[in-house]
Write a structure and sequence with these properties.
This protein is an alpha+beta fold. It has helices at residues 2-8, 22-28, 96-115, 207-210; strands at residues 31-34, 40-43, 47-51, 54-63, 66-73, 78-85, 132-136, 139-146, 149-154, 163-168, 190-199, 217-223, 235-238, 241-245. The model is unreliable at 170-190 (pLDDT under 50).
Length: 247
């Protein structure tokens, strides 16, 4: 195990417990001869075998009575050492290559999952404060969490009705003196948070949102004395209409 760890430290300079410079270790693991089969190579002191999409590097040894094998995959910092009686070992690599043929794909798949970048959430900050049912006379607007998105449903969950995703437009609250809500007589009593609406089930733009000035903006109105613990929006303003909270 200590020998394998040493071989893996190819980027560490000599010093302390590092008895060989990383450049020397890297040179020791280079092939000298590539064999005609294209999947085998010989270096000094290691032998190489190409399998499962990577080059394995190792050394086999035999003394009277037993056989041993050390095989490594440097890119994965993965290695196996085995030793067994000669009479019990039909495989010349003492099963290190068969074992690595199983381990390499599994380790690579695990590393892909670990290194996979986390998809940033598209939910607006404090999205819980926006969720609810809003009403303007006969028109119902439902704001819900759909998967990893905050969604606005026009109509009472009618399958034919548009569904819009809502995302942050600004990092902080808009001033009540700006935007559509400034014309509202109650604007001075509210703190205004603005989200942008996008079609949820289409990558194409929406004419009804694009044609009007700032028609895609959804204004969520909160009490002016909104506490730090957050409270639900009192009403929303969208496309020239005001929808008061029902639930």
């Amino acid at each position: 195990a200590l020998l394998m760890k040493l071989y893996f430290r190819v980027d560490v300079p000599k010093g302390g417990q590092q008895i060989l410079d990383g450049a020397t270790l890297r040179e020791m693991q280079l092939p000298t001869i590539l064999l005609r089969d294209g999947t085998s190579a010989v270096g000094s002191p290691l032998e190489m075998q190409f399998m499962s999409g990577v080059w394995t590097k190792g050394k086999q040894g035999e003394l009277p009575g037993y056989r041993s094998s050390l095989t490594m995959v440097n890119g994965l910092n993965l290695g196996i050492f085995t030793s067994a009686l000669v009479s019990d070992v039909p495989d010349k690599t003492v099963w290190t290559l068969p074992a690595l043929s199983l381990l390499i794909p599994a380790v690579e798949a695990a590393l892909v999952d670990i290194r996979k970048p986390t998809k940033p959430s598209s939910l607006p900050s404090h999205w819980q404060d926006y969720v609810g049912r809003y009403l303007d006379c006969s028109v119902v607007v439902n704001v819900t969490k759909g998967g990893d998105a905050l969604q606005l449903h026009l109509g009472n969950y009618d399958p034919a009705a548009p569904v819009l995703n809502l995302t942050d437009i600004v990092a902080s609250s808009w001033n009540v003196t700006t935007g559509w809500g400034a014309a509202n007589s109650n604007a001075s009593l509210a703190a205004q948070h603005v989200l942008r609406a996008h079609p949820a089930h289409s990558k194409e733009s929406c004419r009804w949102l694009d044609d009007g000035m700032d028609a895609e903006l959804v204004y969520f109105m909160f009490s002016a004395d909104r506490s730090e613990s957050h409270s639900s929006a009192m009403y929303i303003q969208f496309m020239g209409a005001q929808f008061n909270r029902c639930t």
